[in-house]
Write a structure and sequence with these properties.
Largest sheet: 6 strands, parallel
Strand order of the largest sheet: 11-14-15-16-17-18
CATH topology of the largest domain: TIM Barrel
Radius of gyration: 22 Å
CATH architecture of the largest domain: Alpha-Beta Barrel
CATH superfamily of the largest domain: Aldolase class I
CATH class of the largest domain: Alpha Beta
Number of strands: 18
Shape: globular
Helix content: 25-40%
Number of domains: 2
Distance between the termini: 38 Å
Strand content: 15-25%
Number of helices: 16
């Protein structure tokens, strides 16, 4: 039996909050390795157990230590931190796990690269010669940057969701890569985690849109729904481990809902699973119907987030014309009639689109707040292999070679008319316009 060490690395950033974070790609990899009878040792540097600094619905703060600020960030008035479990915990785990035949290390945001470096440094203390495979978002989006930083690693620059994908990727260290016709599952990940703070749900993969700022079509080519029974099995597995809060990871949860979300909601209601469901990824406003809203409310959804970005026609090319002000207004009305409280509904507003001004973003925040729901300002991160990234590359060539330039807390400050102060003022405006404190009476805890 072969030994695999699977690690979700640390993150280095100015801010990081556990809003139902899970390394889904690594869970699917673990599933394929398990089906192939590998012995798995798994360490998630960004994990939290239930009750560990919990805030609301299983969310909470990560442990962190301050890092020296890289020169590129010297003018940002913020502390740069390494987020994740204490390094001593990782070292203790590595000291007790079997010597790996292969180390699989995931990668998250491209600009978290200093956290990835900290992880690899510790791994090499214990296993200096073990073959190292890196996959995930950064490996797909910036493989050349990772190759320069980690020359001894094999960078898998294509999506991998199954043993068949691993074979196609041609990973040199695997003389006999896993091969299984069964779809990989998130359930094996649950089996490796005791007392999880929350659980993940993945109903669909991919997105039918191609917004200029989004890499969904690169990370998951095409759109497909996963089998409903498989998704239900995964929910049961996490539920049995103690999870009572579940977050959907779909990029287009409401798309073709008659074949995906609605059948799942019927199954959840039929089984009587008492849990809270959250959708932190922005859903598409145009696909909300009264029937979908009613069933989501009945099934226990308590956190709804929608992608609005901007209602201005000036930016419709960037947002694929997903929505406008009238459509958002109508959708909010539908959700309120279904029983959702305004405080449960959040609308993402994007800053940093080409030619956009802080004043324009301020107007969008004021509009969303006028609906009584929560404006959620977010700032553009130039994501490699997207059209928006390419458009910014000529004026900011640094984004092509330095992953730290991709940080959403930094890049917008380099745009004309923007700056750290403008960003802080917009975030403060959103907080002033509507309270973000939820009344516990709005959403009583489900019975176990």
């Amino acid at each position: 039996m072969k030994n695999a060490l699977v690690v979700n690395p640390y993150a280095a950033d100015f801010k990081l909050y556990d809003e139902w974070m899970h390394p889904l790609g690594l869970y699917l990899l673990i599933s394929s390795l398990t089906h192939a009878s590998w012995n798995i040792s798994f360490f998630n540097c960004l994990s939290r157990t239930a009750g560990a600094k919990d805030k609301r619905y299983g969310t909470g703060d990560f442990c962190h230590v301050e890092l020296p600020k890289p020169p590129v960030y010297r003018n940002l008035q913020r502390k740069y931190k390494l987020y994740g479990r204490p390094a001593d915990e990782l070292r203790s785990f590595l000291g007790a796990c079997p010597a790996p035949d292969v180390i699989f290390c995931g990668t998250g945001m491209t600009y978290w690269i200093d956290g990835l470096q900290a992880t690899i440094d510790i791994l090499r203390e214990f296993f200096p010669r073990a073959p190292l495979v890196m996959g995930g978002n950064s490996a797909i989006l910036v493989p050349d940057i990772l190759r320069r930083r980690f020359p001894d690693a094999h960078i898998v620059s294509r999506p991998i969701f199954s043993g068949t994908d691993m074979q196609a990727a041609g990973i040199p260290f695997l003389s006999d890569p896993p091969h299984d016709t069964r779809p990989p599952s998130l359930a094996e990940g649950a089996a490796l985690i005791s007392n999880p703070a929350h659980g993940p749900v993945l109903l669909t993969q991919g997105c039918p849109y191609a917004c200029t700022y989004c890499a969904s079509s690169v990370l998951q080519p095409g759109f497909q729904a996963r089998p409903i029974e498989l998704v239900m099995q995964e929910i049961r597995a996490w539920y049995e481990r103690g999870a009572r809060d579940f977050a959907f990871y779909d990029d287009a949860l409401l798309y073709q809902a008659d074949r995906g979300l609605l059948p799942l909601l019927r199954s959840l209601l039929a089984e009587g699973i008492k849990a809270r469901f959250h959708v932190p990824n922005g859903m598409h406003v145009r696909w909300v119907t009264p029937d979908i809203a009613d069933r989501m409310f009945q099934a226990g959804f308590v956190t709804l987030r929608f992608g609005y970005e901007s209602g201005s026609g000036e930016f419709s090319r960037d947002t694929c014309g997903k929505t406008g002000r009238a459509m958002v207004r109508d959708t909010v009305s539908v959700l309120l009639k279904s029983g959702f409280s305004a405080s449960q509904i959040g609308i993402y507003i994007m800053g940093g689109l080409p030619g956009q001004t802080a004043r324009q973003m301020r107007g969008e925040i004021e509009f969303i707040a006028s609906l009584g729901v929560r404006p959620k300002p977010v700032f553009l991160s130039p994501v490699p292999r997207t059209r928006l990234f390419d458009s910014y590359l000529s004026s900011h060539p640094e984004i092509g070679t330095d992953a730290l330039w991709h940080n959403d807390a930094f890049f917008v400050t380099r745009l004309p008319g923007w700056g750290d102060q403008a960003m802080e003022e917009l975030k403060l405006l959103a907080k002033e316009k509507i309270s973000i404190t939820l009344d516990a009476a709005d959403n009583p805890a489900p019975s176990a």
